[in-house]
Queue: 4 jobs
Job 1
Amino acid sequence: MTSGKRVYRSDLRAEQARGTRRQIVAAAGELFTERGYAATTIDAIAERAGVSRKTVFTAVGGKPVLIKLAYDWAVVGDDEEIPLVERERIQRMRAQTDPLKVIEAYSRHYAEVVVRVAPLYLALRNAADADDEARELFAEVQAERMRGMGMFAEQLGRIGGLRAGLSVRRATDLLFFHIDPAHYELLVLTRGWSIGAFREWFLTSVKLHLLGVADTR
């Protein structure tokens, strides 16, 4: 029989370990964004997180694991082991049958996510040019993004939301293009657009290219 005290101690240790993991991944994400992937060392991550080098490896892993976790957590907004597609917000979007409302809901969602994701995405993209592990990870991230946009395009096609002549395959490509954080980098980080203006551009452009609607207001 397991005592209540033993269960409590086990839960406490698990929560402490999770907290350490969060701390390390957060530190790694900050450094990858500030310094780039190649220039960020495990020692620097350990120092920023306030742990030992050994703890970084035992609690999380090496740099490829760290940047992928930081990226994945940025996408969903937390470290819960719930796939994005199973999240309540995404489920509500997938249950929607009005194409315009689907795209409006997604534009709000994307405008929130890209702020968190773009710095890590750009760090990984830049590292992919010179680092084999980063290149493999970037390819994995791109494949995940493409699959997600494929599901989005299929939903729009199923509910009659694609303009005449636009295939699901081509809609997938257009969505994949629009969610590239490079647009956020150029318009918000470089040109100084507000996130509201960026979201409006995203919404208007996706409505035009997928629904064939320039503006419904």
Job 2
Amino acid sequence: MKFRCLAAAITVFALTAPAALKANDERLKEAAAVLDDMAGKADKGIPLDLIKSAKCLVIIPGVKKMAVGIGGEYGKGYINCRKTGGGWSAPGGISVKGGSAGLQLGGDSTDVVLVVRDEKGVEKLLSGKFTVGADVGVSAGPVGADAATRAGKADILSYSHSKGAFAGIALEGASITTDEDENKELYGKKIDNKDIVLKDAVQPPKGAAPLMTALAKY
């Protein structure tokens, strides 16, 4: 009996693990595509100066509405931070829930990028869970030649892209949390985002290659 239960458990893991990894790989590819799309549009996208000076980037491909007529969105993505010696850290999994105001751009799926500009923003994002607008300044990200000037002193700038429409969004009220399940699937063990993005010892998983390549451009 015990043998049959163990065999069944192994079979379930063998069937579900590859599917989970495939989903992670696809999401990492989508995150890379989102960054290339939103940062590669000259004066119509995220200003490169703001990306180059960013402490961290949060990329959430395809934030989706949870239900028609009910406020709130849901999405999964990644946070990468600047390493002390240069370059970008491995990706840490994050999830976002709520914050329906500002995400209504006419589509049911919205790509979101957060540009984290200072240590306060980094600290809040890596605290495990925080609500946008409650303890840290988050503003709709400006575009254009003088964007850096107009960005002001916001700790985090937020940008979105949906069905061809590109805009800064407030994301007020959205809850951003560490995605522990995603990290376990990516790294094969339970690991906190602080250990992933603040310690150079953590190497990106193979599936993150497209995202790391996109980040290296900036």
Job 3
Amino acid sequence: MEDNSTFAVGHLALGYITGKASSKPLNVNVNLPLLFLASVISDVDLLIPGLKHRGPTHSLTMFFLLFIPALMVYGKRAVPYFIAAVQHSLLGDYLTGGGTQLLWPVTSNWYGIGITITSLTNVYLEWTVFLMSLTLMLKTKDFWTLFRHHPSNLMLTIPVLTLILPALLSFPLAVPLELIIPHLIYLTLLSVSALIDLKYLLENI
């Protein structure tokens, strides 16, 4: 598997876990769709022709600079989203594949441990964080919150797209069969949440 492969489940799960965990000591109520969006926004490079995957959009340097205005305006309320965003590179992509350009543009060096993304080790890691996130969502009742109408639910269309990108960008399917179930569960959860809001909007036009 080339190093431009990506599995959204691990990013979404880690983004939710780290963002939610950081919100508790800060006493911040997080917006769940925004948290999921922040966790995968780095992968926008997959849709930009000529831009290397896991390059500039995965840079911690860039995230610090981009989040400065949000931190100045919203203070501690912006912190969980910042953490959800940087975990994508610092935890997810640092561990698997060909690494990431963590410090671009300061340096164009690539950093990473290099666990093969389709390896059994990564499959175990993806399943572990997926089950942890699902358990936390059920314990905090966030799972059911996603099935309630909220205008921000439409932001979930972007995380949904990252879940189906492996199927759209490659044939045969890039996602290992062992990870199909967590992908489908996240895809269903986030898609239904977005559709609930879309239905509400259409009924109130």
Job 4
Amino acid sequence: MRYLHFITLFLLSISASKAAEKEVLILLPIEVDQSLQEEAGLLGTAVQQALSERFSVFYGPAVEEKLEVEYSKENCSALSCAQNLAIEFNGELIANTSVQKVDTSFVIQLQINNVVTGQITDSLLEVCEGCSKLQMLAFTKRVVSKAFEANALAQTAQPIIRTPQKTDLKAVNIGTTPTRARVRINGNYRGTTPLGLQVPVGEKIRIQITKRGYEPRDFVHIIGQNDDSLGNLPLTEKPEQTKRVRVPMGF
């Protein structure tokens, strides 16, 4: 009995040691288009579960709260915010994920960045052709899990890159002067400026920008056409409203 007890403790210690060896990864809130808004939480959980086989993953309210705090800072840049987020969770890896509907298919993209070295350590781009939303959930978990297996990473030092079959995604940066303006894409709140997005080339999106004390901006932009113009959008201060003067009654 003592021998069996010793073996059990030994196996548990090995399991705990392996878990401790996992790299810490911070999974940012998943980006989805309007048609997948209700499924965003389920898709994010599917990605988190798949990545947990390889990494020690931080995801959910704790990450979202810290992200909100970072983006509220006046001098926050995409890099500095990511670095501060990594420091908060004692890690170096930040994962961005997006799922977009293109025609009758879904495109999933996942990219892992090392905020210390500035390198892209892993990336994935897969197309689920003709999938339903339910099939997309299973597809997301399956392809992420398969791509980021520990054995697969050990066999190659090169990023895992999938070639898209029908579309290309482009990184787009939205910035304003002043910063910390709220951004909505196609009616969905995406964060505050400066803000980075992954959007299919050729997609027409509606961008709404608001900030207290400034006139709102609302316009349509086609991805791939003069995207650099989005990097520094000037905001116009609202004119001061005429103050109301209370006139005392009587003489």
